[in-house]
Amino acid sequence: MIVTKSTVPVGTGDEVERIIRARRPDAEFDVVSNPEFLREGSAINDFMRPDRVVIGTESERARKVMKHLYRVLYLIETPIVFTSRRTSELIKYAGNTFLATKITFINEIADLCEKVGADVHDVAKGIGLDGRIGKKFLHPGPGYGGSCFPKDTLALVKTARDFDAPLKIIETVVAVNDQRKKDMAGRVVAMCGGSVKGKTIAVLGLTFKPNTDDMRDSPAIDIVAALVEAGAVIKAFDPEGMEEAKKLLPAQVQYCKDSYATMPGADCVVLITEWNEFRALDLGKVKSLLKTPALVDLRNVYVAEDMIELGFTYSSIGRP
User: Fold this and answer.
1) Same-domain check for residues 97 and 79
2) Around Cβ 166, how many Cβ atoms within 10 Å?
3) What is the gyration radius of the CA atoms in the chain, in angstroms?
4) Could you tell me if residue 320 is inside a domain?
5) Is 198 helix (H, G, I), strand (E, B) or coil?
6) Count of domains forming the chain
7) Would you give the distance in Å from CA 222 to the centre of its chain?
8) Closest CA to 207 of 264, 142, 159, 126
9) Which of 132, 163, 204, 226 is the most buried (most CB within 10 A)?
10) In whole angstroms, how far apart are CA 174 and each of 99, 107, 108, 178, 217?
11) What angle in degrees, to the nearest 10, is found between the helix axes of 168-191 and 219-229?
């Protein structure tokens, strides 16, 4: 049994089987697609209690072996989907690109909310309670990143073009998300009066999401690079990602020992990644350290009314 767990282009299992049969025509084997659906930061829970298990094979023998392998999950009534190998390979891509689309959709709705004076969180709740839509992945922010969504959306776009079935929706999602990350720096520039040249910006959070040190395609990469190019001095802190960040961010970035160390004399704070410790900052201390009490909250961690009452100039995503 050769089981592929990785996310791979449709037809990879066929190619693996072709290569092995060419080398060993006498061998008895089956190639199975069994994509993983683990989230970074939640992998153990996702492994022990998955939403579903997808198994792609045309072999009855392989089907029996895989069913036996996952017998423990039958006890907790985990849905196990048996399908063809190519279908299994496509399920993984379709799932991730749909989630990326959902994120991009709510980000664009957030932009509309700002224009019309609506609250994106109420919109997200109102549509998320529809069982056909669901509430997950409807939180606005600076765009998706990480090891899966950017790679998988591009891969599915490439596969669709190769088979002459272009996916215009996903192509648009990729373009909108790339532009969104670049546009987030503009919010910081606007907060600083139209220019960040010579100004100090305190950056909280560098990884693409909390509970990981993963910097791959993090929105922070585009945001920080744009601010440095515009002449800003960047002082940054991330609980886990700073060593990885040093490989990807401009050399001028200064890395600090904690959140508060980024703030003395800073003209603005920008919150990029919603680590739990950034949700409970001593805002009085923050205000006392900053040169200008300004916060750009790209994850909507704080309540706008509370920030204004404390004397902050506050900017968030998709809220009036």
Assistant:
1) no
2) 12
3) 23
4) no
5) coil
6) 3
7) 14
8) 142
9) 204
10) 12, 13, 13, 6, 12
11) 40
Query: Smallest Cα–Cα separation from 305: which of 289, 319, 292, 317?
Result: 319
- Go through the chain and tell me how many residues it has: 320
Q: Which domain holds residue 264?
A: 182-315
Helix (H, G, I), strand (E, B) or coil at 64: helix
Q: What angle do CA 259, 225, 282 make, to 5 degrees?
A: 15
User: Which tokens go with 102?
Assistant: 């959902």
Final residue belonging to a domain, choices 83, 109, 142:
83
* Tens digit of each residue's pLDDT (9 = 90 or more) over 111-167: 999 999 999 999 999 999 999 999 999 999 999 999 899 999 999 999 999 999 999
Q: Could you tell me which of 225, 125, 150, 128 has the C-alpha nearest to residue 182?
A: 225
- Distances 49 to 42, 53, 96, 215 between C-alpha atoms, Å: 11, 10, 19, 27
d(CA 288, CA 263): 9
- Per-residue CA distances from 12 to 9, 32, 62, 251, 259 (Å): 6, 10, 17, 39, 45
CA 42 → CA 39, 47, 50, 175, 265, distances in Å? 5, 9, 11, 28, 37
CA-closest candidate to residue 71, choices 88, 89, 55: 55
User: For the domain that residue 138 is a member of, what is the CATH number?
Assistant: 1.10.1040.10
pTM here is 0.91
**Which positions ≥6 away from 7 have C-beta within 8 Å?**
35, 92, 93, 96, 148, 151, 152, 155
Contact 296, 271 (CB under 8 A): yes
Tell me the pLDDT tens digit for each residue of 52-97: 999 999 999 999 999 999 998 877 889 999 999 999 999 999 999 9
**Catalytic residue numbers, as ranges:** 148
Secondary-structure breakdown of the chain: helix, strand, coil percentages, each rounded to the nearest 5: 45, 10, 40
Q: How many CB atoms lie within 10 A of CB 97?
A: 23
Give dist(CA 134, CA 124) in Å, integer: 9
- Report d(CA 200, CA 273) in Å as an integer: 19
Amino acid at 124: A
